Amino acid sequence: MRSPSLVPVLTASLVTIAAGAAMSLQGRANGLLGLVLGHAVFAALISFLVGLLCVGIALAVSARSRTSARRLVGLLRDRSLPWWMLLGGLSGGLVVIAQATTIPLMGVAMFTMAFVSGQVTGGLIVDSTELPPGGRQRLNVLRILGVLIVLASLAFAAGDRLQSGIPLWTPLLPFVSGALTSVQQAFNGHIRAATESVVVATTVNFTVGFAALVIGTVVLLMTGVAWRGFPTAPDQWWILLGGAFGVVFIALTTVTVARLGVLLLSLFALFGNLVGALALDALLPIPGSEVTLITVVSAVGVLIGIVVTILPVPVRPSSGNRRGPASRT
């Protein structure tokens, strides 16, 4: 009987979709926080501080994670792991800055489409280099076609928003931050492989990003940019939790990837992200973020492009092998 085995897979799928939706909440929270604090960098600083506290607690209570952290220090000392592999957190900081800067102008759905489009495009480029832990991956027709579908869908949505008056840099900033996220993921993969710890890799990201944002905040304050203060309205407390939403996403997907695999995990997470973003803009719209038919069609197009991108390429048996595909070991 197969029905019992479907329950864990279905549960993992729903959890991953919920984790993806949490990422859309992170975007809305950081977008609103930037308006309250007075600058996107301030919002990114608070988001990273909250995330760093969460992963710092996880690191402190886990003996295995602490051992992995010591292993990372040793690898850096003997230069087995290049120091620049630690800089992935800079990309994470840019993502939060992009959220805080652009979501108030164009909404969560448009940000998500631009970010995912950049992520898919960046992934195609990064995978053709030696950066990923698994080494270089050859380009194939399906991946290129999927990326083209994603970019066409983004252009369709962006064209509509540009006509409404938003500047061109608004969709470009999340696109660039999404593309750089692919580099961050490659760096994280090396750190995870070297330390055998997701907690350590995540802590490194938040630590490096937080340090960079502290410097950015000091520079802004010295140049006269005012920190307006923390949220005071009773219904605004949740916008301080952007970093926590990010940690929730990492924690949940770390558990469900063993049940779903990387491909299904990516699909369900992105589906949840897009659906959550559309729901936020539809139910709690901000000026300029109203969900239109063009937005929905573009989101569906982005999702279709992602599906095409992750489809496995059929392997043809060699002409000299008459016995059919070799069995996997």
TrEMBL record:
Classification via InterPro entries: YdcZ
PANTHER family: INNER MEMBRANE PROTEIN YDCZ
Recorded superkingdom: Bacteria
One Pfam family from the record: DMT_YdcZ
UniProt keyword Glycoprotein present: no
Transmembrane segments: 40-61, 81-100, 106-126, 138-156, 168-187, 199-225, 237-255, 262-280, 292-313
GO cellular component terms, semicolon-separated: plasma membrane
Keyword tags: Membrane, Transmembrane, Transmembrane helix
Protein name: Transporter family-2 protein
UniProt keyword Ribosomal protein, yes or no: no
